Amino acid sequence: MTNLTIGKAINAGLRAAMEHDPKVLVMGEDVGKLGGVFRVTDGLYKDFGADRVIDTPLAESGIVGTAIGMALRGYRPVVEIQFDGFFFPAANQTFTQLAKMRRRSAGKLSVPIVMRIPYGGGIGAVEHHSESPESYFLHTAGLRVISVANAVDAYWMIQQAVRSDDPVIFLEPKRRYYEKSEVDTEATIAEAAPMGAARIARPGTDVTLLAYGPMIKTALQAAEADTEHSIEVIDLRSLSPVDYPTVFESVKRTGRLVVAHEATLTGGPGAEIAARVTEACFYHLESPVIRVAAFDTPYPQSRLEEYYLPDLDRVLDGVDRAFAY
Amino acid sequence: MSDTTAHEEPELIQLLTPEGELTGHPGYPLEITADEIRDLYRDLVLVRRVDSEAVSLQRQGELGLWASLLGQEAAQIGSGRALREHDMAFPSYREHAVAWCRGIEPKELLGMFRGVTNGGWDPHEQGFHLYTIVIGSQALHATGYAMGVQRDGAVGEDGTAVITYFGDGATSQGDTNEAFNFASVNNAPVVFFCQNNQWAISEPLERQARVPIYKRAAGFGFPGVRVDGNDVLAVLAVTRAALDNAREGNGPTLVEAFTYRMGAHTTNDDPTRYRDAAELDEWKAKDPILRVRRYLENNGLADEEFFASVDAEADALGERVRTECRALPDPEPLDIFHEVYAEPNVHIDQQRAEFAEYLASFEAEGAR
């Protein structure tokens, strides 16, 4: 067992992926000697060289577009987008090219790219450094979307993402980069939980609290704090596709569902999950599905983010609303 | 503000004049046999026929759309024939003659414009990527592919070169300029082949750029050259040199093929709304096929029998294109769900199953 932060676990996972397959490349802004602004690629440049750890020009569309070209040549690029808000210049390449390449070629072309994006708020940053853009990816056919909440998942899921033949958007909860857990790096990837599976992070009986990424810690704290209700916390892990059987099974047991995320409310992941759960679990629901999300506003100045981000109290308020019916 | 660069008359590399005189060019010596020139003539005539048949098929309702290459045959045949088998091309959506050079059957191109496929060929096998419609996007794919070629150690003598095609309008796109820059800093083995056909739908070149396109390259740190895009020999020589430069490890080149879109942007377009007929007449005099014919005739390198045989071959090809186009089968409805993901996807699987059941319910009722 090794005690690793989420950031170090992704780093170790990337290293394992690069050792396993010489076609795996890392590319992005400042990923070389600096090791990335969050040091997630620390040491890789030194050990794998400039041909496999590529400091690119400062142009996100160029990074994703050339990664597509390298994938077409047989490589497996892991692209780092420095911050969530800087993904948008690469939106065209991601949505019109990357996501569609397999289907438009009837499976003759494969673009196994992992796009790592540190996302979410809570670090007191300036504009464009605290966004939660997951809904854009979920709405795009052809992309897989995952988010990790602990170092164990960070270590294994980055490796699973690299081995996937589909493009994977790998969302890293930046305010949780320094959260630690024990990781069994001696285990094999075959023993790890599948990338697409949700996980019951804390069992409970009265209400299901569904979250992912940075909100898992908040959700677990809420479950701990609520002495009235037994809260079951589900870590979604895969946002696309969603492991609905696990979600439905839980909701049918508890009869209530609260979905919490940092993404804005309208059209957020919670909206789709609420619709699906209502269809599949209608006769088991004791209350409507409750969403606890960011407001439908631009991300505010950092001095206001503690009001904007769903925190422990807002999550508990959501749980209380579920019991008002 | 000074605009001298815009009005400067840049050198145009030309080997064969519109009158059919082979002048050659000291910078681009071309060793070519009469047989090879006759083959190029044949290519030019045949691809023009495929194109005109496709326009007719669209008018007859057999195709949803067609983007005509009329006038750009020499730019495409010249560059397409400069490619080696293991080279890789990343086209835009009008490169029907390059596709021809890469051995792609016309019906595969028609399939896309008919709405049967999004491009049915195997890009790896043909060395020709699928058409890319979002302007400029493919320039980055070509550059990345070329960066992969470098990592494969496939640069050097008989190395692999990559070429990407785009138009004058695409030079305004960020992706095209990012591709120039990524290729330059990585010294990637890629040739940027711009067919400057003077028009981006209705917008003339002066709405896109204030300097000649080939001069952009200098700012990115690699050579740029303007070639007479209606001169198949010049395009062949210039592209071959650029490809060899790339494959040998000397980095990218921007080739501006100065040509003219003699037809509409696509079959949905109406150029009479925005350009003068006189301009078209001027370019008709520079027709890419006519000058090769004149050269062959004037030098006694081809007789009437040869020209008649090419025309007959074109007629047969036209017939084949019409027949094959009409015979293209519609895809099955469940093809919608095919290859969206490499790995099993529960959402797609569920929707496919539900839709299949829904479709089957009509059959059960005998409604279909």
From TrEMBL, chain B:
Domain Dehydrogenase E1 component: 44-316
Transmembrane helix among keywords: no
Superkingdom classification of source: Bacteria
Cofactor: thiamine diphosphate
Gene3D superfamilies the record matches: 3.40.50.970
NCBIfam families: PDH_E1_alph_x (TIGR03181)
Name of the protein described by the UniProt record: Pyruvate dehydrogenase (Acetyl-transferring) E1 component subunit alpha
Species for this entry: Nocardiopsis lambiniae
Organism ancestry: Bacteria, Bacillati, Actinomycetota, Actinomycetes, Streptosporangiales
